Amino acid sequence: MATKTAIERGDDRSAKRQEPGALAEFGGGALGKWNELTSFLRDVRAEMRKVVWPSWKEVKVTTGVVIIATFLFGLFFFLVDNIFNATIMGPHGILNKLGGGQ
Question: What exactly does this protein do (predicted)?
Fold first, then answer.
């Protein structure tokens, strides 16, 4: 049981549970869940109003940057993979890839 001074100072975390009307604030049951859902959806709507959406020009520019970066990274990893493969397999592995090896 929390002491009165602990409750006044706010030191006891269980003080809320010891108050007689603490369960009244729970709002249990289906109605409580419905209230939580509507409150959540209201908050989502408020946050969506705060979003700053990019302009069409910004979307096109950043899409182009992503496409070019993807292509460049793909080319880089292709070259690195082939260099490692040639190093490990040696000249014989390269000839087999080109179709000249037996």
Answer: Essential subunit of the Sec protein translocation channel SecYEG. Clamps together the 2 halves of SecY. May contact the channel plug during translocation.
Task: Answer for the pair 85, 78: CB distance below 8 angstroms, yes or no.
Answer: no
Average pLDDT across each block of 10 residues of the chain; the chain has 102 residues. List them in order: 62 55 57 89 95 95 98 97 82 66 52
Write down the pTM of the prediction: 0.47
CA distance 60 to 34: 41
| Dihedral of the alpha carbons of 15, 21, 26, 28, in degrees to the nearest 10 | 140
Q: Decide: 55 and 63 in contact? Cβ < 8 Å.
A: no
SS3 2: coil
Between the alpha carbon of residue 11 and those of residues 8, 18, 21, 64, 102, the distances in Å are 8, 14, 20, 56, 82
